[in-house]
């Protein structure tokens, strides 16, 4: 993922809302979100090059999502795939804290990442760039390709819009979340971060919804979990050939222990 917006326990009726965009090269082979044959309780997309995923949820309410940390100068020559972290967490029986405590021991082997991992009750953030883990209290958070809540324009804008959606609506539907995720406004150059990829690429990567001939937003995912344990999920996949043309998959299930 390259942008994760998450509302953790935003109201007495809602446990979790996630709105996330995965940005990737269009040539990288990918399988859309579905329940995995080898792990029927896991619902996630699959990176067919690395074998892992960028966002997933399990029928028992465990969920996780990951973003890369953008710093070309810190790239390792032959690191393990970061997508395997999500798969390992969803398959694990460890609590989110226990899993992150274990992950920290070998997190230096990976290129930089942010991990959001939780269940119905708790939410944790961890980044191997600072070797820091935090349990997050109820609130609205945003993670792009830097540390949590770094005020990049897409993070600031996304959190503001998600807060407005929550304040204006009793029932959270998918369309306002997808409208937020397809915002492609490019901020001014003075607002752009400097992550070492050059000004042209900073402009390309700055919007919430990224689009270029070879690289862009491949999928948008919205997840809504209510207090009763009902989970509604929708994923829209974009092929990059025609702007905003997408295929859609939806899922609904009740959390079971």
TL;DR of this structure?
This protein is of the alpha+beta class. It has helices spanning 83-91, 96-104, 153-168, 174-181, 199-205, and strands at 3-11, 14-25, 30-35, 42-47, 55-58, 63-68, 113-118, 123-127, 132-135, 139-143, 215-226, 230-238, 246-254. It has a single domain (3-254), classed as Penicillin V Acylase, Chain A.
Which key terms come to mind for this protein?
alpha+beta; six-stranded antiparallel sheet; 36% strand; 19% helix; Penicillin V Acylase, Chain A; seven-stranded antiparallel sheet; 257 residues
Distance between the termini: 27 Å
Query: Which parts are unreliable, with pLDDT below 50 for 5 consecutive residues or more?
Result: none
Q: How would you write the strand order of the largest sheet?
A: 3-4-5-6-7-8-9
CATH architecture: 4-Layer Sandwich
**Class by helix and strand content?**
alpha+beta
Tell the overall outline: globular
Please name the CATH topology: Penicillin V Acylase, Chain A
Largest sheet: 7 strands, antiparallel
Please provide the count of β strands: 13
Domain tally: 1
CATH class: Alpha Beta
Taken in chain order, the helices and strands follow as: EEEEEEHHEEEEHHHEEE
């Amino acid at each position: 993922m390259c942008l994760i917006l998450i509302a953790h326990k935003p109201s007495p009726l809602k446990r979790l809302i996630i709105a996330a965009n995965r940005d990737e090269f269009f040539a990288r082979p990918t399988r859309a979100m579905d329940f995995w044959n080898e792990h029927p309780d896991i619902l996630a997309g699959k990176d067919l090059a690395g074998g892992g995923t960028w966002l997933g949820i399990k029928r028992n309410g465990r969920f996780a999502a990951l973003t890369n940390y953008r710093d070309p100068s810190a790239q390792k020559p032959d690191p393990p795939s970061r997508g395997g972290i999500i798969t390992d967490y969803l398959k694990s029986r460890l609590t989110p804290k226990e899993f992150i405590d274990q992950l920290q021991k070998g997190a230096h082997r990976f290129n930089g990442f942010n991990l959001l991992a939780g269940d119905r009750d708790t939410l944790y953030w961890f980044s191997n760039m600072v070797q820091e883990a935090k349990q997050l209290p109820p609130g609205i958070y945003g993670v792009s390709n830097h540390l949590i809540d770094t005020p990049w324009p897409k993070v600031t804008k996304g959190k503001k819009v998600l807060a407005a959606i929550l304040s204006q609506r009793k029932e959270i539907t998918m369309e306002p979340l997808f409208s937020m995720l397809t915002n492609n406004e490019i901020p001014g150059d003075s607002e752009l971060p400097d992550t070492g990829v050059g000004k042209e690429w900073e402009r390309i990567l700055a919007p919430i919804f990224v689009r270029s001939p070879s690289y862009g937003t491949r999928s948008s995912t919205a997840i809504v979990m209510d207090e009763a344990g009902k989970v509604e999920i929708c994923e829209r996949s974009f092929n990059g050939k025609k702007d905003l043309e997408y295929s859609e998959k939806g899922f609904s299930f009740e959390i079971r222990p």
